């Protein structure tokens, strides 16, 4: 049975934060369980989130909730084990909606993952994500 793989020791990085306002729009807002807070990226062609897990995990699903109008039409997942280069894991195509969406893919064992957001629906390339969860099992 899968469960959330993101914990307090998961290292989280993002491509940008709107107006550098990490309090209101920072990366941790995606993981706090509060539906009122979000990560809001700054402008840019490609945005991304990286997660470095404190232990090896088997990833099989990503759950994500965008703000409609500030979504991504294509997401690429890359991952690797410690000491390796990132390689392609999966890609998925979210809908432009404010609903929570789930994307399952072939179970992959990794220590680090990067989710790349392309073809963002906002004219300036901004993203707004209220929830992001990575599901699977600890190894």
Automatic annotation (TrEMBL):
Gene3D superfamilies per the UniProt record, alphabetical: Galactose-binding domain-like
Keyword Nucleus: yes
GO CC annotations, alphabetized: nucleoplasm
Record key words, sorted: Nucleus
Localisation per UniProt entry: Nucleus
InterPro entries found in the cross-reference section: Galactose-bd-like_sf
Source superkingdom: Eukaryota
Main subcellular localisation: nucleus
Family listed: Belongs to the NR2C2AP family.
Official protein name in the record: Nuclear receptor 2C2-associated protein
Organism encoding this protein: Salvator merianae
Lineage: Eukaryota, Metazoa, Chordata, Craniata, Vertebrata
